[in-house]
Amino acid sequence: MTDTAEHDDQVTDDAPGARLHERRPAAHRNARRVLSRFCFHRTLRERLAVLEEAADLHDLDELSDVYGDGIVEALESKVAGLLGTEAAAFFPTGTMAQQVALRCWAGRTGNATVALHALSHPEVHERNAFSEVGGLRPVRLTSEPRLPTAAEVRDFAEPFGALMLELPLRDAGYVLPAWEELTEVVEAARERDAVVHFDGARLWESTVHFGRPLEEIASLADSVYVSFYKSLEAFGGAALAGPTELVEEAKTWRHRYGGMVFQQFPTVLSALVGLERQLPRLPEYVAHARVVAAALRDGFAAAGVPWVRVHPEVPHTHDFQVWLPFEPDVLTETAARTAEETGVVLFGGSWDRGGPGLASTEVHVRAEALEWTAEDVKAAAAEFVARLPEQVR
């Protein structure tokens, strides 16, 4: 296996563009300061150490789970309690959980049409799984970078059995509606006799924006899906929460979809750790994301880049978008070079084209970011701008 330090020494400014995808993660691994380190940034040994934290959260002397009993049931009960639902079912993936949930609702409503946003996860990231696997028919309420409005739900031109709302809507910038807007959208769906399902992969961090506890937010929907690895840093896994009858039916379909896994205790233990250790910290991350966002805007302006957009202007969660007036490949190269030369990673993700000469990336604020002051962020922005090619500055 190639030594990481030796490999990085060989990566220079004249490395071909094809190797940029190798430079970026290498620079992140070796950085002394980052805004976030996700689970996939850590070694297997570091990830396994997470399980040691579970010793005071669950009786590790009990027998291991078999096909969803024992510790799996304990996690399901805990999630139902947190969300205020009658029951919950553990699933290996959110894709499976949501397909199953909406398939069950289609059988109950007699309508397989699911109304959703054009940027919602099933439409963008799941290879048409709703229609290809689930026998569902998705219809798009809007493609605007916001959640659907009550008017769009109420006035949609054809019937639908279920309304699916992704909270927050990741591909629009991790955006959330106002609480009043959300309740109006739910009421509009009810007026059409449609059930409401929340894609709550990141619902955990929505409490700050809504100013409501998880239980009150979840109570608006007929069913809710939550993820354990996106914000809680578990090994994987998801849960579907809702009425007991729906959850029991969902478990039947979970088996049919291949989700009745023999043993799942490592993932479940890591989820319990995430609920205990990470969930209470999310409001702190959201608050600091707003500090980071404001400092980024000010830092780029002070460094000579007056047009920079932070979206949302005040982040709704601890994740948000940054838009800059340069080509994606220029920004990707600059981000990699800045990280390599300074040991500081301001932008660790990819840059996507948003139009001619315009690109966006996602900024994620986690525990590591709490060590950054606003001045640290501004200094990092200045270092980034200083490494932009002369011809584009």
TrEMBL record:
Domain of life: Bacteria
A GO molecular function held by the record: L-allo-threonine aldolase activity
Keyword Transmembrane helix: no
InterPro entries cross-referenced by the UniProt entry: ArAA_b-elim_lyase/Thr_aldolase, PyrdxlP-dep_Trfase, PyrdxlP-dep_Trfase_major, PyrdxlP-dep_Trfase_small
Transmembrane segments: none
Keywords annotated in UniProt: Pyridoxal phosphate
Aromatic amino acid beta-eliminating lyase/threonine aldolase domain boundaries: 66-297
Entry keyword Endoplasmic reticulum: no
A GO BP annotation: L-threonine catabolic process
Any one Gene Ontology cellular component term annotated for this protein: cytosol
Required cofactor names: pyridoxal 5'-phosphate
SUPFAM superfamilies the record matches: PLP-dependent transferases (SSF53383)
Bias (Basic and acidic residues): 1-10
Protein name listed in UniProt: Threonine aldolase
Chain positions covered by the region annotation Disordered: 1-26
Family membership noted in the UniProt record: Belongs to the threonine aldolase family.
